[in-house]
Amino acid sequence: MKRTMVLAMAMTGLTGGCVNVTAPDKPIVINLNISITQEVVYRLDGEAKSLIQNNPGIF
């Protein structure tokens, strides 16, 4: 039983590898192409406001 455990531990030690973690040479660049279209919302809000003013009984 002991021989089997020693053999299993030895095999695990032989098959285990070394893991190296190194930082990249250049910085990581994340390019987010974000477009905020606040103007469209403002136009719709203005149109809705004028529509409500012109038609007060719409709601």
3D architecture notes:
Helix content is 53%, strand content 0%. The chain has 2 helices and no strands.
What are the segments in which pLDDT stays under 50 over at least 5 consecutive residues?
none
User: How far apart, in Å, are the first and last alpha carbons?
Assistant: 85 Å
Q: Identify the quaternary structure here.
A: single chain
Structural class by SSE content = mainly alpha
Q: Give the SSE order as H and E letters.
A: HH
Strand content: under 5%
What's the overall geometry?
elongated
Number of helices: 2
Radius of gyration: 34 Å
* Percent helix: 40-55%
User: Would you report the number of β strands?
Assistant: 0
- State mean pLDDT (0 to 100 scale): 76
Biggest sheet character: none
Keywords: Lipoprotein
Pfam families: Lipoprotein_19
Protein name: YnbE family lipoprotein
Name some characteristics of this structure.
59 residues; mainly alpha; 53% helix
